[in-house]
């Protein structure tokens, strides 16, 4: 059920966020959004479809849940969020960031350091998250304003790029967007 290449119907967006003094964000890599990346109509378990796609492309340690309502970031890993059911408004980029509406079938790929928190969500929201293989295996969840900012910036700079786009593999748009 998951695509091997970017379908014509998928809209791709990128958003860059600057360090705001509390949320480091990522100075080189943009947040990447794929709208309607996975056709979920008729899927018995839409979350499983995202899990299969992410795992097939080297993104593991997945989970099913929602998006935390508190502002946080990850300084040692990138993260992908697949919206399996419902709708959610997420503030990306920290307190001075941008609110983005996501719906079932959408994917958000967050480079290490990108602040994020849930602003609102439908009652049926189900999100699948995962992380690229090949990192140092550590997972953190610093809260802006409480984190050691300089240490977070250093960790973000040392986070390796993923080997594949979580949805579209080695030739997916992410590979160009994050290396080009």
Descriptive notes:
With 180 residues, the chain is α+β, with helices and mostly antiparallel strands. The chain has a single domain, classed as Jelly Rolls, CATH 2.60.120.10. The protein contains three helices and nine strands; from the N terminus they run ββαβββββββαα. Strands 1-2-7-4-9-3 form a six-stranded antiparallel beta sheet, covered by helices on one side. Strands 6-5-8 form a three-stranded antiparallel beta sheet, with no helix packed on it. It is globular, with a radius of gyration of 15 Å. The mean pLDDT is 92.
| CATH C-level class | Mainly Beta
Q: What is CATH's topology name?
A: Jelly Rolls
CATH superfamily: Jelly Rolls
> How are the strands of the biggest sheet laid out side by side?
1-2-7-4-9-3
Shape: globular
Overall strand count: 9
Which structural category do the helix and sheet elements fall into? alpha+beta
SS strand fraction: 25-35%
CATH architecture assignment: Sandwich
The end-to-end span amounts to 29 Å
Helical content class: 10-25%
Helix count? Answer: 3
* Overall structural domain count: 1
Write the element-wise H/E pattern from the N-terminal end onward: EEHEEEEEEEHH
Major beta sheet summary:
6 strands, antiparallel
